[in-house]
Amino acid sequence: MVGSFDVLADNLSINGATESFPADFDVSAVIKEPVPPVVGDNGIVNGDDQISAAKEKRQIVLGRNIHTMCLEVTEPDIDDEVTGDREASMASVLAKYRRALTERTKHHLGYPYNLDFEYGALSQLQHFSINNLGDPFIESNYGVHSRQFEVGVLDWFARLWELEKNEYWGYITNCGTEGNLHGVLVGREVFPDGILYASRESHYSIFKAARMYRMECVKIETLCSGEIDCDDFKAKLLCHQDKPAIINVNIGTTVKGAVDDLDLVIKTLEDTGFSHDRFYIHCDGALFGLMMPFVKRAPKVSFKKPIGSVSVSGHKFVGCPMPCGVQITRLEYVNALSRNVEYLASRDATIMGSRNGHAPIFLWYTLNRKGYRGFQKEVQKCLRNAHYFKDRLLDAGIGAMLNELSSTVVFERPHDEEFIRRWQLACQGNIAHVVVMPNITIEKLDDFLNELLQKRVTWFEDGSYQPYCIASDVGEKNCLCALHK
Ligand SMILES: Cc1ncc(COP(=O)(O)O)c(C=O)c1O
């Protein structure tokens, strides 16, 4: 009954029907469709069939509201305030949710989020609606803001990427995607007729930006590592020499953690006749933007080079309870993009209007606590653990790849979707990955691997399954399928 406490307390609505709230309630649950083994008429496993059938099963259904679980919002009963039942039932829902989050946090490996943080000191601020709407550098009329923290964080990043205080502009975004949307927008404002170039392994937000801004976009091939293929880049630049170039350079691709060679990208542009006033480079450092500066031998991201903007996600390597990010660009570019907004008494140069004022304080807090040295130590630990994990996978006969500058370990996709969900692995085609962040310890990697090895015995014991071939994703030398081992 809508409005009754019972519904809110222990029932979930499933497409109209209600269902009992399970004890191990998983709020992130999705439809579970096990992939059956594919055995040919002759009883022999056909690798291609296996792959295409699995792909078919993995397809995402568009245009359907996949609405497996929801916590219904119900109208309070007349006597709710007297009985206090509603408060109690909501408290029980939240307690269950908290337990589910604790469990899900323990079994998380696939997304590049550092879940290890302690922000108890900031809980006193949750009573405030902190909003940094407008430009970080201009005081607006809304006084409940955290611009002083925001600018402190921006200064820190500008120093990291070597841009003087009086030469940069930036803001704390809602996520890495917003940084990319802003970076590409600045590029397009600088070169309204520019063509956007991005490797095919760039994050989807780059291609979304191209669609949103109706820009011509040229996809560049990648090497096996996932890095941009500068031979193909050169060939494509030569076909469009009459138009300026706006380039997305990946400081860590989403799936393989590949770092594009920024210096080679710049050289390719110069070699094909693009002078510095005819190109704009946005560096998408969502993933490794904060790790690269601490990796020896890594190509340096610096505004001393002819780049236009850099963005990074704040909730990834740094670790933050809410999505956020940082975008830094050159002040000279942003002046052309911004407009005055009278009712704010500020200037508008951001993608969003209202902006999360809590996020800068969380970032400020962690940067202060850890500092450059703290991050350096964590980066080294992540890279060490990633190497350990990749070596253990290979020793166990599982095809795997780890790019030199990366903590993203790519390996054969597990055959069981339930197992993938349990460990929250991100998968693409026949590969899965684990992104080793500071909270991913050797013990956690060992637990995962031991469970994976046990599962593999059951998947492969009767011969219905075979390890996927991942040669086309990671190269023959990293593939340990029946053909390549
Ligand atoms: C390379 C890259 N760019 C951009 C993004 C988007 O970042 P966010 O999820 O913070 O929007 C991601 C996300 O994983 C990414 O891997």
Net shape: globular
Beta-strand content:
5-15%
| Strand line-up across the major sheet | 3-9-8-7-6-4-5
Major sheet size, sense and barrel closure: 7 strands, mixed
In DSSP terms (H or I, runs of 4 or more residues), the helix count works out at 15
CATH class of the largest domain: Alpha Beta
Can you give the helix content as a percent range? 25-40%
Radius of gyration: 25 Å
- Between the first and last Cα atoms, what is the distance in angstroms? 60 Å
> CATH-wise, what's the superfamily of the largest domain?
Type I PLP-dependent aspartate aminotransferase-like (Major domain)
Number of strands: 15
Query: Which regions are unreliable across 5 or more consecutive residues at pLDDT < 50?
Result: 1-48
Number of self-contained structural domains? 3
What small-molecule ligands were found? pyridoxal-5'-phosphate
Category by helix and strand content: alpha/beta
Order of helices and strands: HEEHHHHEHEHEHEHEEHEHEEHEEHEEHH
What is the arithmetic mean of pLDDT? 88
What's the CATH architecture of the largest domain? 3-Layer(aba) Sandwich
User: Could you say what the CATH topology of the largest domain is called?
Assistant: Aspartate Aminotransferase, domain 2
GO biological process, one term: carboxylic acid metabolic process
Catalytic activity: L-serine + H(+) = ethanolamine + CO2
Modified residues (N6-(pyridoxal phosphate)lysine): 316
Cofactor: pyridoxal 5'-phosphate
